[in-house]
Every structure is written in structure tokens, then in C-alpha cells.
Amino acid sequence: MSDTPEVQEYTPEEQALRDALRTVIDPELGMSIIELGLVREMHLQPDFTEIKMIMTTPFCPYGPAILEQARRAAEAHLGTPVKITLGMEMWEPSMMEGGPPAEWGLF
Fold first, then answer.
1. Count of CB atoms within 10 A of residue 66's CB?
2. pTM over 0.90
């Protein structure tokens, strides 16, 4: 067993979409949905894409706006329809890219 976190590898298309989604910022935390680890799955097809996301809290007041911003950013990048599905997985700071910031004090 290793203490090294597993590094996720993405296709060039998935990485480009992730980069496009970095423009979507959680207004309360000031971080992108990619940095926070809110994008859990992406299913890219030539004419349609489905993205599964979660929120940092179950009743996130900005949730609907964040989901809509993600859909628009993905559609603008891909040029095809995008469906955003809200998953029920509970978010935790360990889901963040590189883990939670040191200033959060969550080691």
C-alpha cells in the first residue's frame, strides 16, 4: 500500500474539456469545479456529452448556477449538447486536485 495518491489520466479530449471547465468557479470557495474535484465523470461522444458532478454541500445555494455554468462552458468548448447529471456522492476535501490547501488545516 502506498501513500502516493493515484494520478488520474485523461484522454486529450477529456483534458481539453477539463481545462475549459476550469473557468467555472465556486463563488463561495473561489476555486474551479475541477480544482475542487466536483466533476466526477465525463462521457464524451461525437454528438453528445454527459458530465456527472457533485456539489460541496448537499444544499449548495449556488448549485443550480454552477451546474448551468458548467453546461454552458462544456457546450461552448465542444460545440455539441451537454447534459449535466448531479451525483449523490458526498464531497470531501480529499477529492480536490492535489488535496486540500494547507491553510484549510485539514491534514
1. 22
2. no
